[in-house]
Amino acid sequence: MFDRSRPGLQTSPLSRGYPAAEPFLAGGAVSLRPMTAFDAEKLRTFLNELTDKSRRERFLRPVSEMPDYLLRTLSRLDGRRHVAFMAEVSTQGTKRMVGEARYVVDPERPGEAEFALAVDDRWRGRGIAVRLMETLEDRARAAGLHRLFSDTLEDNHAMLRLARRCGFAVVSNPREAGVKRLVKDLVASRALH
Hints:
The protein is of the alpha+beta class. It has a single domain, classed as Aminopeptidase (3-Layer(aba) Sandwich), CATH 3.40.630.30. It is built from six helices and eight strands. Strand 7 and strand 8 form a beta hairpin. The protein is globular. It starts with 21 loop residues before the first strand and ends with a helix. Mean pLDDT is 84; it is low at 1-20.
């Protein structure tokens, strides 16, 4: 997925072989790169600028503003058990985060990881979510994970469409009303990549 021969792309210590940025077009120049703890304030700004509806869809509950404890949790990336990628756009010399995707390995099932993804409403429909999801899946496969899963609200139609497009099964969550579970067997889908 990434072209390691391109000059000027620096490798982050957490990237484990991935370049620090991978530019692509999505209605504008967008870069995709591994997120680090140094991106905490960009992450806070990104999440705070999401619409109330998008924050609710991302966290499965209303979140009016990013609390510090949650930002600390989301910023504790180790490149193995907690991995995150971000999409950035550069405007007027400033880089702004427009999307993020992450997974956290389930401590009770080390071959599985829960993922989350969000894209700025103004940048939706441009392929950013698909690219973030593909990158996350590639990284999970390379790390030896065999399954990705996530819960999403049953009225989050954009996420349900994305999940189906990316080959996830959408199943009922018997423990939570109004929530669907997204599941993908990475081993079975490896043959397709």
